[in-house]
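Slack export, channel: ligand-projects

TW: morning all. Re-posting the request from yesterday since it got buried. We need the structure predicted with the small molecule present, not the apo form. The ligand is S-adenosylmethionine; the SMILES is in the block with the sequence. No rush, but it would help planning for next week.
GE: picking it up
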Amino acid sequence: MTKGPYRQLHIYELRGRPRRFPPDWTSKGFLGCWYEEDYAFLFFSREARGVVEAFLKSHPSWGLGAEIVLPYEDWEAGCPLRPYQIGSLWIAPPWEPARPLAPLSQVLFLDPGISFGSGFHASTRTALLLLEALLRRVRIRRALDLGTGSGILALAAAAWGAEGVLAVDVQPVAVSTARANVRRNRLEDRILVRLGDARQCLGEPAHLLLANLPYEILSDLCARPEILGYPWMILSGMVGRQADCIEESLQGQDLRVEGRQAEGGWIAMLVRNPHIPSP
Ligand SMILES: C[S@@+](CC[C@H](N)C(=O)[O-])C[C@H]1O[C@@H](n2cnc3c(N)ncnc32)[C@H](O)[C@@H]1O
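GE: finished. pasting the full token output, ligand included:
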């Protein structure tokens, strides 16, 4: 049975990009808004067409489109939120008791809400596996997590020893979700979450770049000279031939793919810049 606050999602498609929402929407089940180009997708945990229509009376230029209703677990990689283990770490929803899982230091509490990054998607899992293996052998002082979503990779990097992480996402709802997860795990002094576009943030100094991003963004980043500033990179979100194209682009810049991790057709890779000493 599904535990926790989420059951059904009611998603309202809006032509327009509202930035502020009535504060009383929280009590009406509002979970957040996802932006795609000229559209906004308003997520509620219950039926709210009347609520949205009332809001639109004062913004008549924003058109209300389809309502999509789906079980929450279909949004979150087809799985209900539940505790699971990845390497030495338990990742658990905050409503689960920690004690039966493991000593508290090895548990990360994570509520992805409507942001990507529950940990059940193969693009996250493959990146996490490479991350743990790397942090077991290399001490990383500073990591940069581009496309942080729920904050899962940034949180895991901190749990596995990274001293400081800058986490960035272009969606405001992901930023607020990741910040809440950082607070929940009392990692505010080690993880900073910022709103921003990965393409503008590439170049922020770090010893490890983490990027689980749509392929177009990833391939754009890999072609930029700033990519050469990182001794280590974990890139994820590629399927099939996409990984070969990214690898070719990296090799063209004299970067070395040291490992690949694959699951269900998704591929993550560990990349090393041999011209920068490992930290
Ligand atoms: C596949 S999810 C990865 C989430 C999490 N890092 C994980 O591994 O599960 C990709 C994330 O990148 C964000 N994103 C997409 N394009 C972006 C861009 N141009 N700049 C920053 N973030 C972006 C999305 O909002 C989403 O949260």
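GE: first-pass observations. Helices lie at 49-57, 72-75, 122-137, 152-159, 172-184, 198-201, 215-222, 241-251. The chain has a mean pLDDT of 92.
TW: perfect, thank you
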